[in-house]
C-alpha cells in the first residue's frame, strides 16, 4: 500500500481554493500510484480558522465544500482530509479527519486533545472526540489521529498535559499504522523536538508513524511542513521539504522514501521569514511592498527579507532623512538597495518637522524640547509611509526587532505604522547574526551597517546605549524572562545586575500598551509577542 502525504499551503477561509488544492494534489498522488492520500489538520478551512468558526454561514459553506470535495474525489484516490464537522453534543463543532472515498465520507475521526496554551484556543470552538478507535482503510487498521493527540505521551514528557493518550488507545486496539494530521506552528528548532517525539511514539508502540504537517504562513503563525515517516523502530524513513509544498510518497511495506535535508540555525530562520512575508502579502492580495530604510541593521535585514519574498522589483526602499541623519546612513542605505536590486525613493522630512514645530509652538511655549520632538520625526515618517501605501496599494513592512518591542523602544504611529512586523521575533543579537549569515557569500548588507553603533538618529550623537543596556545584556535578560520564565532573582544568578534587571522588566511591563497596537509579527521563537502573549495593560 502506498500513501501520499500531501504537504499543502492552505489559505484560511478560502474553501474553494483549498478544496481545489486538495483535489489537484490528490490527482497527482493517484497518478504517482498512491492508494491513500492524507492532508494536514483543518486543510479545508485553513488553519487556524479562529472565529470564522463562529460564523454560521461559513460553517455551512464548509460542510458543502466537504460534500463537493468528496464527489470530486470519487474514483481518484481515498483521501483523509482535515476539516471541522458538526458535533452532536457540547460545542457545535469537532476538529476532525474525514475519510473521503467513493464520493462520500466513509469515516470521521474527531480530535481528542484540544490545546488551549500558547497560540492555541481550540476549546473555544471544538468538542473533544472520545476514546479513539482505528478505522479500516483498504483492509488495514489505521490509527488516525489529529495533531495534539500525539503530543501527550506520558513516557516522553515529565508532566503530561492531559489525562488520556489517544495514540496509546489506538495502539491498544490493534492499529497497524499511526497516521497524524497536523498543523504544527513553527519555531526555530521545533522540528528536532517533533522528530524525537514521533520517533519515541513509534518505538514505544512498535508501530510506524506517518506525520503530515501544513506548510506556509497564516498571519503571524508560520508552518514549516517537513512531513515525515518513522518505522516501528523509531528510525526516520522519509521527510518532505521544509517551507515548501510537497508530496511525500511512501510504500508501507518498505517504508522507504526520500529524506529531504532540513535547514538549521540562521538558514532555518531566514527561510521561515521569507516564506511568512511572501504568504502574508499574497494571501492579503498584495504583490508589492514598502520598507522605510534608515541605514541601520534592522531596516537593512527587513529589506533583504522582503526583497527575497516579493522579488526586488516589487519592493521600494524609502529613505526619509532628517537634519540628524548621518551621511554614512544615507550612503549605506543606497549601497544596500543597490546590492539587493531595490529601487529607492528619498523624502527629506525637514520641511515637515519645521511645519509641526510652527503649529505646536503656541502649545509648547516655554517647554524644553524632549522626546516629544523625537517622536514627531518618527510619526512624520510613518505618515509618509502610509500615504505611499494608500496611493500605490503597497504593503508597509515595519522593521522593529524583539528587543525594542519588548521594552517599548519604538514610536506608536511612527516606526510601528504598517502591515507586518517582519523581524519582530528576533532579538537584536539575532538580527546581527542573521545579517552576517546572509553576507556569508558576499556583502549584501554593507559592512558599515553591521559595524556602526545602533542609533535612532533622532537627535545629535544619539545612541541606543543612551537609553538601553548593551544589547547583549538586554537580550540575555529578556530571553531569560520572556522565554525562560525566570524570576528576577534567577536572572541575577546568571550574572546580570539586579538594578539593570529591575529597569528592564519595568520597561517590559510599561510597553504592553504599545505591543497591543502593533501589526502582527512573524513568530520564530517558542514565546513571541502576539496571540500567544496575553498580558494585561492596566496592572500594577
TrEMBL record:
| EC code | 6.3.5.1
Which positions does UniProt annotate for L-glutamine binding?
117, 184, 190
Q: Which GO terms describe its molecular function?
A: NAD+ synthase (glutamine-hydrolyzing) activity
Query: Which residues of this protein are catalytic?
Result: 41, 111, 147
Question: Which keywords does UniProt give here?
Answer: ATP-binding, Ligase, NAD, Nucleotide-binding
Q: Does the keyword rRNA-binding apply?
A: no
Asked if the Swiss-Prot or TrEMBL record annotates the protein with the keyword Hydrolase, the reply is no
Give the superkingdom in one word. Answer: Bacteria
> Which of this chain's residues are annotated to bind ATP?
292-299, 399
Family designation = In the C-terminal section; belongs to the NAD synthetase family. Belongs to the NAD synthetase family.
PANTHER family found in the cross-reference section: GLUTAMINE-DEPENDENT NAD(+) SYNTHETASE, NH 3 /GLUTAMINE-DEPENDENT NAD + SYNTHETASE
Protein name (record): Glutamine-dependent NAD(+) synthetase
Question: What is the scientific name of the source organism?
Answer: Gloeobacter morelensis MG652769
